[in-house]
Amino acid sequence: MSDDATALERHQRAQQAFAGVLANVKSDQLGDATPCPDWKVRDLLGHVIGGNQRTAQSEAQLPEDFDMFVDAFAASAEAAQDAFASPDGMTKTYDVGIGPIPGSRFIVLRTTDVLTHAWDLATATGQNTDIDSALAIEMLALSQKFMRPEFRGEGMPFAAEQPCDDDAVAADRLAAFLGRPVS
Predict the structure, then answer these.
(1) Tell me: the pLDDT tens digits for 37-95?
(2) Which domains, ranges and CATH numbers included, belong to the chain?
(3) How far apart, in whole angstroms, are the C-alpha atoms of residue 95 and residue 168?
(4) Cβ atoms 97, 157 nearer than 8 A
(5) CB-based contacts of 50: which residues, under 8 Å, 6+ apart?
(6) Is the pTM of this model over 0.85?
(7) How far apart are the first and last CA of the chain?
(8) DSSP structural state of residue 151
(9) To bridge 127 with a disulfide, which of 2, 52, 122, 160 should be the other Cys (CB 3.0-4.6 Å)?
(10) Please, what's the largest Cα pairwise distance for the chain?
(11) Cα pseudo-dihedral 7, 40, 47, 127, rounded to 10
(12) For residue 143, what are the contacts with CB-CB under 8 A and spacing of at least 6?
């Protein structure tokens, strides 16, 4: 399998993992706190949907109603996957918060973001955090390879790495590496 095909498959799996967790969220949990400071479940859903929409370069439309969140996520996940799978999806430049990067690097960030936010959503809603262990192991290895110290700290995308047992499930280890407190 080519590197692009592998990246596309990982991205699709992360979107599916998020969808699987979202399927078990109840409408009365939209106001619940998440491991992301200052974000409720509603905010986290908006962030993931918005990230997918930005990837697809489509207009951001964030829903109000819970059922609309589910539909908006499904549509945005498909649009993001299609954007990366397009003929220039891995070579074109995406302008993101850390600067312009090629699609081949951006897909790694988006995959990690979606999978980690699936963990956040699972944690916030009392679900099992053992989410696609094989993918979590791969994304942890890639995150460890690409993480730079300047991406961590106040006002940055990631907090300091948090402690986590070596025998914890892979998604817990990924979340801890990216700054989430894991109990």
Answers:
(1) 889 999 999 999 999 999 998 877 778 788 899 999 999 999 999 999 999 999 999 98
(2) 3-132 (1.20.120.450)
(3) 35
(4) yes
(5) 60, 62, 76
(6) yes
(7) 37
(8) G
(9) 122
(10) 43
(11) 20
(12) 112, 174, 177, 178
